[in-house]
Design goal:
mainly alpha, two-stranded antiparallel ribbon, globular
Length: 492
């Protein structure tokens, strides 16, 4: 297994090499050619690595500092899919943009794009808690400059808000990481092992629960800020709405999952150390419920299409947190919902971004008759929004139904009531906005040119997968989700 283990280093090195190469290229066209080839090659490598893990078991590399199991392999697959689709879409999006992409801007974008992929990959490959924290901090530093790629007063404000709020959150998570490490110093003979997740999991029942509990609170608030859980979500609507559409897609489609993944890693350790009382799960469910309620309230009164999608992200991160907090079937459903959200939100931001270019605004009162003005993008946005609110058939409906069943099984009636009320409110709000944008007479200047083949692939593929998962789950995917869920579920 030496060669597959070394493959972890290769997968991490590929986007880092791509970032350096983009800085040396002499034309915007060359940058996007390298981006497309490099990201697709990295995505294939990630898929190959995941196949090895699901077939043969976890892999270690670099003295155990890098580690891939079913949970991280599953998230690597989501990362590969979202980045591949977003990279294909980005070339078309920036060619149609009113902001000219000169050589210097293209080189900067290419390096930052590859850098974002490398940082998120590092999070999923890290076995060392400190290294995982470095990966999350790196995503903040790299993606900050992607938000303000098209400079304006609003984008600069969103950039600074994102940088300041998420940096504070990551600093809080750093304190939580140190407290978790401190709780393990007496249980492990080698102090350096206290930061390895695999070693913590082995000795979890022996850890000191007091600093561990405090550490988890810091971690939940810190990483929860990057997840967009309320009330730490305030950066998210501004950043998602002001960033270019491909950037918004990777933010919502995979970056939020990356931060939530960090929290998932601590759940079985905390539960084993605290006697399996469900203490950490109740905290997660609480933050999830608050996020759903806050998001549902703001969704009703949104005027901007991209901000609507942003608050939809807050809602769905809350749904996933509730699923994790319920445990059992809820853990399986939460991981399934993460994939559904990634598919729907990726297509949604693609369509909202192109419609914004066609209509020259993201204001929903001006986005009328999108089905006639731009059939692909208007239909895509309508279907993405319907999928995200759980209209049948969609994978989102199935995962939300499973979370509701998990709440019934756990007799968590209060959680179930909040979940259904918030989801119902969001359904009504988003459905109304979606219908208003789809129908009506578009302005003459909003008629779009014919969409290309790659446009259709970028929109149709994620929406087709979302619809397919609403009626049929392949056994392979079920097995993958079960393997990943067993890692997150509290230890017996």
């Amino acid at each position: 297994m030496e060669q597959p283990a070394n493959f972890l280093v290769v997968v991490l090195a590929m986007p880092m090499a791509g970032a350096g190469l983009c800085l040396l290229l002499r034309s915007a066209r060359a940058v996007f050619a390298v981006l497309t080839a490099g990201v697709l090659a990295t995505a294939l490598a990630m898929a190959g690595l995941a196949a090895v893990v699901f077939g043969s078991g976890p892999l270690h590399a670099v003295g155990g500092w890098l580690f891939v199991d079913a949970l991280s392999a599953y998230h690597l697959l989501l990362l590969a899919l979202v980045f591949a689709l977003s990279t294909v879409f980005a070339g078309r999006y920036f060619r149609c943009s009113s902001h000219a992409m000169d050589r210097r801007t293209a080189r900067r974008f290419g390096a930052l794009w590859f850098g974002s992929l490398a940082a998120m990959t590092l999070v999923f490959l890290s076995n060392h808690l400190g290294l995982m924290w470095v990966g999350i901090e790196s995503t903040t530093l790299v993606t900050t400059f992607l938000i303000g790629l098209h400079r304006s007063r609003e984008s600069l404000e969103a950039t600074w808000k994102y940088l300041v709020i998420c940096s504070v959150g990551i600093a809080i998570a750093f304190m939580g990481t140190l407290l978790v490490g401190a709780s393990a110093t007496r249980a492990l003979p080698v102090p350096s092992d206290a930061m390895l997740w695999t070693r913590l999991r082995e000795v979890a029942p022996l850890l000191d629960p007091s600093p561990l509990k405090l550490g988890f609170i810091f971690l939940l608030v810190g990483y929860g800020t990057k997840v967009g859980l309320a009330p730490m979500h305030t950066w998210l609507p501004d950043a998602h709405s002001q960033a270019p559409a491909p950037v918004s897609a990777i933010f919502s489609g995979v970056m939020l999952n990356t931060a939530l993944y960090c929290i998932m890693r601590y759940i079985p350790v905390v539960e084993a150390a605290t006697g399996g009382t469900g203490w950490s799960l109740r905290l997660l469910a609480l933050f999830g419920a608050i996020s759903m309620v806050v998001a549902a309230a703001f969704i009703l009164f949104q005027r901007d299409a991209k901000r609507l999608l942003a608050y939809c992200s807050v809602e769905h991160m809350g749904i996933i947190a509730i699923g994790l907090g319920l445990g059992g079937l809820g853990t399986f459903a939460a991981l399934f919902h993460a994939a559904n959200h990634s598919l729907g939100k990726t297509a949604g931001f693609f369509c909202a971004g192109r419609l914004g270019q066609i209509y020259e605004t993201h204001e929903m009162k001006s986005l009328r008759g999108t089905l006639r003005a731009a059939p692909l993008w208007g239909t895509g946005l309508l279907l993405a929004l319907l999928g995200l609110i759980g209209v049948v058939p969609s994978g989102t409906f199935m995962s939300e139904l499973q979370i509701a069943k998990a709440a019934v099984d756990a007799r968590a009636i209060a959680v179930l009531v909040v979940f259904l009320a918030a989801a119902g409110t969001a359904f009504i709000g988003i459905f109304g906005h979606a219908m208003a944008m789809a129908w009506g007479t578009p302005p003459r200047e909003a008629m779009a040119e014919k969409a290309g083949l790659l446009d259709g692939v970028a929109v149709v593929l994620p929406l087709a997968l979302l619809a397919l998962l609403g009626v049929w789950m392949p056994q392979t995917l079920r097995d993958i989700l079960e393997q990943a869920a067993r890692i997150v579920r509290p230890l017996p």
